[in-house]
Design goal:
Distance between the termini of chain B: 35 Å
Number of helices of chain A: 0
Order of helices and strands of chain B: EEEEEEEEEEE
Radius of gyration of chain A: 14 Å
Strand content of chain B: over 45%
Distance between the termini of chain A: 41 Å
Shape of chain A: globular
Largest interface: A-B, 28 and 24 residues
Radius of gyration of chain B: 13 Å
Largest sheet of chain A: 6 strands, mixed
Oligomer: heterodimer
Number of strands of chain B: 11
Order of helices and strands of chain A: EEEEEEEEEEEE
Shape of chain B: globular
Structural class of chain B: mainly beta
Mean pLDDT of chain B: 92
Largest sheet of chain B: 7 strands, mixed
Mean pLDDT of chain A: 93
Low-confidence stretches of chain B: none
Chain lengths: 117, 113
Amino acid sequence: AQTVTQSQPEMSVQEAETVTLSCTYDTSESDYYLFWYKQPPSRQMILVIRQEAYKQQNATENRFSVNFQKAAKSFSLKISDSQLGDAAMYFCAYRSGGGGSNYKLTFGKGTLLTVNP
Amino acid sequence: DGGITQSPKYLFRKEGQNVTLSCEQNLNHDAMYWYRQDPGQGLRLIYYSQIVNDFQKGDIAEGYSVSREKKESFPLTVTSAQKNPTAFYLCASSGQGGYQPQHFGDGTRLSIL
């Protein structure tokens, strides 16, 4: 079974600075998808960014980008120009590329990000 | 707007009681999921359904049951067999294809009276 590890239970960053959240995963598959979700205090889960494993290019969404290292099984999230609204719990998630029962996501335990003004 | 509606927002269960959490989506998604979230545990999959009238157990299905009679609806029943039901429950749905993200409802907080 796949596992997702977020080694940083908590992180903090100054407003306008850059922060990187770590995520590693364990899989024997070559085809899969990776996601970062954000959960603010409202507890709504919001998709931040996603990456297809067969794409070498790192995904970018405005101030959010990933560093995807397939060989190292690493999928870190970089937040640039951090804003107060970025404060949230961030979850890394893995999804197998096959069909059938592989629709489901496996989540890490999350990293709580604090943004200091 | 399209989305996922979970109700109620807060729910209280008495000992020995079954309670049902509602999840409705109007995104025309085939797949639906139920997750349980406990502090420090991330999200754990309870049940999922990829098509009407079919569903599979997730990682922590014991003490829970589901039905999928309509594409739009995927209710979760927390039975009296679930001895530690206090948690935050999230429902999600997704379209076909691995790159399609899961869309989440706002959650239901279940507590024991």
